[in-house]
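Fold it.
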Amino acid sequence: MSELFDAVDALVASRSALPPPAERKRLRQGHGLTLDEVAAALRVRRATVSGWEAGRTEPRPPERDAYARMLKQLSELYPADGPVPAEDTAVPEEPAVGAGPGPSAVEPTQDTVASRAPAAAPSAVEPARARAVPAGPAAEPGSTTPHPPAPARVSAGAPRPPAGVGPMSRRPPAGPARTAAPAVGADPRFENGPLAVVDAVEGQVLAYCVGGLVLDVPAKSLPALVEWALREARLGQPKLSGSGKDADPLLVLTEAALERYGLPVALTEQERLAGRIPEGHKVIKQLTRANWQLTKRGFGPWGRVYRPAQGSERSCVQVCIPSWDALDTRHWADAAQLAPADLARLLGLYASRVMTPRGSTAVTGLELMTALHPPTRASRPDAAGKRYSEHNPGSLGRDPVDCAPCEAPDGHPLLAGLPRFHQRTPAEVLMEEAYDWARPLTDTECLHSHLVGIDVNMAFAAGANGLTVGLGAPEHVRQPVFDAKLPGSWLVDLSHVDLSRVQVAKDTWAQLDASLLPSPFTPGGERPTGPAWYATPTVAYAVELGYDVHPVEAYVRRDNGRYLDAWYQRLRDAYLATMADLGVHADLPPQEFLAAMDGYRHRDPQLATLVSAIKATVKGGIGKLRERPRGEGWKPGQPWRALARPTWRPDIRAAVISRTRINMHRKIVKHAAFTGQYPVAVLSDCAVYACDGPSPLDFLPYRDGKPLPGGFKLGINPGLVKHEGTQSVLWGEGVREQFDAPGLNLARYIKDGTVTHTDNGE
């Protein structure tokens, strides 16, 4: 009988009564639901729901019954002859509070819409129309302090209207371009923010901007869209430095927008490997006919469409295509799957706190360095009042400089004379890399119950803070006297430095067990056996430990400065502001800090993604300073494209990594000298200790709430540490035995305890 009942239920469901298509759309919009939300709830495609509302198709079981149930409930809430839902019932969302320079959020009001003047340059496209979402009170996530009214914004997981659609926001009439009044102090040229997520809905193209603003896009082709972005949309970001350049508008194209403008939704395998669509593609031909150009990287996940600058006026638009893997899931999580309004919020926050993205997080990290220290500036006026472009002091300039031979990676043109397959020794190559060191547990450590990992916040950013780096070309010096204030690479023998007796303070020496410590001079932690090349911070640390050094030769840079300070400060502020949004504030007491960090990523997944992107910007930016060849038919001994950049500076990368590794070792030594505890594993910015408890407070020495001076301190600021993870000592010994790897680096797996393969150091 149950089968018969099921059949009857299915028959009834197949004829579930549905309101007319127009009424379906009214009910969805009346409740502030997007097509994406309905599609996700019913487990169908967005286009399927759109077809139901347009009357092109009808739902079938089992979705039909669920769809009818939803519409019936909505019809009870919003009867056809009932009142229109009040606009002030929109769900408020956290304001996008930027740290540092950047576009202020547009602040629309419910009844007032300010007209803006026609664009200065003529355009063949129709002026943009804007839809304003009413503002409402909101507080930043994790904060109890109210903030001024900000544009209503969509929060993840909450019922929300598509900005500018339905009764919660009214569309202005056709005619002159309109938008909400810009916030006080906002640059009127960029009143709609730094970027727009372009989407196509039911034949209409919309641009979702920061602050909940939605613009109607009249462009019928990609060339027209580029023109619109430059002439009508008022997108962009003011320059970060007085002698710099304003950021170009960024257009993020959804899958629907790609289809609308004749571009593929996904790249083929061949296109993915090439990083671009073919030059013969019809859309590229359209751009060429309209006198637009592309960079050498072509039209790929991150594209740049431009015309040569006319004087100081730039005509350039950046294009981001998430479905072509522009947003790396390692750093941006599932950002590519977000609804347009949510994606605009996420990328808009990144733009306001870091900068408008110019590519991957690594590319943006490098571009941020240049944006904060432009290579040129305007000179003082001459007798005729004319200004010229001149070198900007403190920058890396316009022209690349050769690195020292010891700083050159394998395959560099400077090494073309070496025999093929030659393996350079430490006395031939600078090897400043992050830690990857581990050792077996001692018998005493095996009696402890837990292994606790601590991780240094923004370790490479902290390593860059206050670091003096070379700005110009190196000078070769033989038999130099070491100068800790002079950046460079030094060939020196540090094998005599004995970690069993080191100086931990002025005239204060400590006796340590050197067998339980990694060497500070090598990434693998082994003690050096002879002369090797080191960056200045590494050699300076040997002196700090109380030992004399006598370099054989060096490549020093007399022209130097603290090039990365502004870069560090902007990324630090971005990180701290976002963590504060998530409820993790600076200067929290240790126990409160650990509690605040517990599960912080679940409080707002989008802001958690922003944290990951900011951290990836730091690491990626430092890595880009020594970018290696990337295909393109390169052969060893030949130059590659990155070498033409002034920002190709392996010496700066080496100095940052050296200082980061030394910072970690200094804390390890201070901790060992005070407590007698030694790490069992160190991986980059993570250290693992054995102790009798699951918390960092079970082994970190705090007295009256104060940490060991010069040691590890819990906190969110760059350079302080957080809890990385805890596992049992039995787990550690078990995985080493399982994989028959006594040197398995437990720091790599301490976070969740999952070990899927033998540790090969990669």
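The mean pLDDT is 85.
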